[in-house]
Amino acid sequence: MPDKAAEASRRHRIAAELRPQAAVVEGAGFPELPLDCILLTTEQIRLAATSSPAVQEPFEASVSPESVLLYTYTGGTTKFSKCVVVLNAMALWEISNYHTVMQGRMSSADRVLQFTSAYWGAAAFGQIDIALAFGACVVFVPTEPGAKGLAAAVERYRISVLGTVPSLLRATYPGGPASAPSSLRVILTWGEALPVKVSRVWTKACYVVDLLIASEYWLALSSDCSTCVDPVDGQEKHVFQPLPSLPMLLQTSDGTLLPPEAPGAEGELLLAGATVSPGYVGEAGRVAAVSDAESICWFKGTRYLRTHDRLRSVGAGRLVFCGRLGTLAKRGGQFVDIEALAASLAATPGVAEGTVLSGPESLEAFVTLEEEALSRPLTETLSAAARAAGSGVRLNVRKASATPCDW
After folding, report:
1. How far is CA 274 from CA 97, 133, 135, in A?
2. How many alpha carbons fall within 13 Å on the CB side of residue 31?
C-alpha cells in the first residue's frame, strides 16, 4: 500500500483477526503471523503447479455457494475499515449477471487486466469475475503498476476490457481515448463517482459502464452512462438500473420503505440476496452477522443491508446516485451536502476533479484543472470554481498533471 503506516496496521489486523494457517508472502512475510503459519512463496506455488503430481491422499472438502471465498477489508480509513466476509455466492452472482450489464459487448475473445492488489479484494476478484462471466482471458501483472505501468500493461498485452477507479483512468490516459491503445474498447468504473464529462469523452470510443458496488455488496446497479438532469438539484447524472432479480428497497428519511420504481422515491439503498455479505470478522476472529439497526433493516422476513448510499427514482425503474449518508457539514450555521458541493465543482468548465473536505474550522475544496483550462485566462476557471464552492470555502488548485499550482 502507498501508505506504509496503513499497510502495517492492515498486516497486524490480518494476523490478529484472521489468524491464517498458511500465507503466500514475499520476503520475510508478516512478523505478526502465528508461529505455526505455513509460509509459501509464489515461486513455490508455481513450481508445484507445473511439476508432476506426487502421490497424495484424496482431499475432500465441502464447498458450497455459502462457503467463504475470501476476507477483504473495506476501503475506508484504517480506523474505520472492517473485515468483510465474502461468500462464493457473491462471486457466482456477479458471474451470472455480468451478461445483463454488458449487453453483448463482451465475448470469450476479450482480454481483461487483473492489476489491483489483493489488499482491495472486492476490486481484485471483480476483475477476475468479469472475465469468468464470458470465458475471457485474464492477464495478471505482478504488482499494482500505477498510472504509467497500467498504460504500459494495457498496450503490451493488448487489453480490451479494463476495470478501474475513475481517477486512475484519468491519470493513466490524461489525453482521453486518443492516448489509449486501439485494443481497449470496454471500460468499467467503480469505487468513486465517474464525472459525466469524463464518461462523455470515453463513450465516443469505448463502451463504458459505471458500477455501484462495495465490499459488502457486489454487482447490483449499473449505468451505461446515459444521463438525465436530476429534477431536484439540476445536476446532470448517470442513470443507474438495478439487476432484474435484485431484491432492493429505498428507505426514506422518515423510515418508510418504498420499491425503487415508486414515483419520486428517494432514500437510502437497501439490498438483499446473494450479492450481499453475511457480516464481518470481529476482533476475536469470529464471523459476526451484521444485526444492528445502523447496518440492517428487516422487511417481510427478509434481511436487507443498509448501504448508506442515497438514490432517487427518476421514473421507469431508473435511479440517480445522490451521495452517501452522513456527508452533511456545517458552514455558516447551515448544513451543506459536501458530496453535492464536490459534484458541482467537478461540473465546472475547466475543472477535471473536485473534492471537498470538512476541516475543524471550515470546508476545504480541492480542484484539479484540465490542461485546456491553462490555455485561457485562469481567472475565468477560478472564478467559476469559486462561485460553485460558495462563500466560506477555501479553494485549493492544482494542474491535471498533479504538479502543484501556487495560486
Report:
1. 11, 16, 22
2. 2
Of 373 and 22, more confident = 22
- Identity of residue 243: L
CATH top-level class of 71-79+82-324: alpha beta
In the chain, ranges of CATH 3.30.300.30 domains? 328-399
**Res 404: pLDDT:** 36
Q: Is the pLDDT of residue 22 over 90?
A: no
* pLDDT recorded at residue 378: 65
Nearest to 95 by CA among 274, 285, 344: 274
φ/ψ of 133, rounded to 5, equals -60, -25
Measure the CA–CA gap between 390 and 365, rounded to whole angstroms.
10
Task: Give residue-wise pLDDT tens across range 166-201.
Answer: 989 999 999 999 999 999 999 999 988 899 999 999
Amino acid, res. 44: Q
For 113-142, letters b (16+ CB in 10 Å) and e give bbbbeebbbbbbbbbbbbbbbbebbbbebe
Q: Which listed CATH number (3.60.15.10, 3.30.300.30, 3.20.20.70, 3.40.50.970) goes with 328-399?
A: 3.30.300.30
R_g (Cα) of the chain, nearest Å: 23
Handedness of CA 195, 200, 203, 204 (dihedral sign): negative
Confidence (pLDDT) at 59 = 61
**How confident is residue 358, by pLDDT bands cut at 50, 70 and 90?**
low
Could you identify the residue written with the cell 451543506? 336
Q: What is the pLDDT of residue 406?
A: 33
In the chain, residues under CATH classification 3.40.50.12780 are 71-79+82-324
- Consecutive H or E run containing 293: none
Query: The C-alpha cell of 406 is what?
Result: 501556487
Short-list 207, 125, 215, 99, CA closest to 161: 207
Q: Is the pLDDT of residue 262 over 60?
A: yes
Q: In which band, very low, low, confident or very high, does the pLDDT at 60 lie, cut at 50, 70 and 90?
A: low
